[in-house]
Amino acid sequence: MAINKFLLFALTFQLLLILHVSSESSLITPKKFLELAKSPEVFDWMVRIRRKLHENPELGFEEFETSKLIRSELDLLGVKFRYPVAVTGVVGYIGTGEAPFVALRADMDALPMQEAVEWEHKSKVPGKMHACGHDGHVAMLLGAAKMLQEHRHDLQGTVVLIFQPAEEVFAGAKKMIEEGALKHVEAIFGIHLANWIPLGKTASLAGSILAGSGFFEAVITGKGGHAAIPQHTIDPVIAASSVVLSLQHLVSRETDPLDSKVVTVSKVHGGGTLRAFKGFSQLQQRVKEVITMQATVNRCNASVNLTPEGKESVPPTVNDMNLHKQFKNMVKDLLGEESFVEASPLMGGEDFSNFAEAIPGHFSFLGMQDDTKSYASFHSSLYRVNEDALPYGAAIHASMAVQYLRDSNKGSRDEL
Ligand SMILES: *[C@@H]1O[C@H](CO)[C@@H](O)[C@H](O)[C@H]1NC(C)=O
Ligand SMILES: [Zn+2]
Ligand SMILES: [Zn+2]
C-alpha cells in the first residue's frame, strides 16, 4: 500500500512536470524557427522574393518597386506597416503593439555597377546590381516577418521591421531615424551576409565592429598653359601629387600604429575614402587642411567636399555589450556552440551605425561560404548570394526578437 501510494505520488508529480514542460515548449524556440525557415513554405518563398529583387535592382532612395513588393508581401501576411518613411522605407509592426519594442533591420538598395554573373536571374537593369546582398537581406527579414506573424500570440511585446533605403550612400538610416522609425524602440539588430564566413555560422563582437567611414572630393585649380613654358603655368598636377603624398602621412605619421585608419585616394580625377575607428572627424579635418595647404604651397587653389554626390559619412558601428551577450547565447541555442565566430573588426562602413548610435544596437555577419563554390566579396561585379544562407538569417532575426522581448520582460519584472 505504502509503495502504491508513493507510486501514485510519483506519477502525479511526473504528470505535473510534463504539463509544465509542454506549456513552456509551446512557446517558439530558436530551433523551431530554423526548421520553419528551412521548410519549402518559407525557404522557396524567400528565394523567389530575393531573385525578383535581384532582377530589378534600385539605387538609394529609388527603391520604389522594392518597397512596393515588400508592402504587398506584408499585406498578404497581415502585417501592419508605416509607409513612406524616408522616401521608400517601410516600418512593419508585429505583436502586442505595446512595449517593449525591438527592431530588426534590412537594407534595400543596390549599387551602380554592371553584373558580370551570367545566370537565370541576372540584373535586368544595365549598370545596376545587387552586389552587396541587400536583396538577400530583404528576403531574410520578410522570412522572419512571416514566421513571427505566425507566432504573433507568443510575442511579449512588439517587433519592428525596418526596411531601409540608401545604405550604400550612408543616408537612409539617418533619414529613417529623423522620420521616427525608432519611436519607442529599445534595441535594434542588423545582419549582413558575409562570403568569408562558413555557411550557417555567424560572427560578431562586442564593441566596434565596423569603421567610421566617409568620402572626400577635392578640386585643385591651377592655370593651364604649354608644357614647354612651365613658368607661365600653375600646375595643379604637381599640387595634386603633393596632396596624394601628404595624405599618406595622416596614417603613417599622425596615427598610433596600433590604431587602424585608411585614407585612400581612389581616383586622381576626383577623390577618395576615409576610414577610422577613432578620431574620424579629426581625420576629416586634417584631410581638408592637407589638401588646401598643399595646394597653396604649390600656388593652386583647392576646395574639399566631404559629402560628394550626397554621400554622407557614418560613425563606427559599435555593438552593445549586453545585446552581444544575448546574441551569442541565442546563436549557441539555435545553431550550436561552434557556430558563433568571434569577428575581427573590419574597415568597412555601414550606416547601421546611425541606428546603433541612437539606441543600443547589434550588427553581425552571416556566413554563406561553402566548399562547392567560391563567393566573390561584396561590391564585386561577380558577387553572388548563397541562398542556402537565407533560412539562417530569417531564423536568427526571428529568434533574436523573441528572445529580446522575453528577456526584456523578465528584466522589468526583476526590477519591480
Ligand atoms: C585662387 O583664388 C584667388 C582668389 O579667388 C584668385 O585670385 C587666384 O587667381 C586663384 N588661383 C588659381 C591658380 O586659380
Ligand atoms: Zn555595400
Ligand atoms: Zn551592404
UniProtKB/TrEMBL annotation:
Mn(2+) binds at C132, H134, E168, H192, H379. Pfam families: Peptidase_M20. Gene3D superfamilies: 3.30.70.360, Zn peptidases. Its cofactor is Mn(2+). It comes from the Eukaryota. The Mn(2+) ion enhances activity. Keywords: Hydrolase, Manganese, Metal-binding, Signal. Belongs to the peptidase M20 family. NCBIfam families: amidohydrolases (TIGR01891). This is Peptidase M20 dimerisation domain-containing protein.
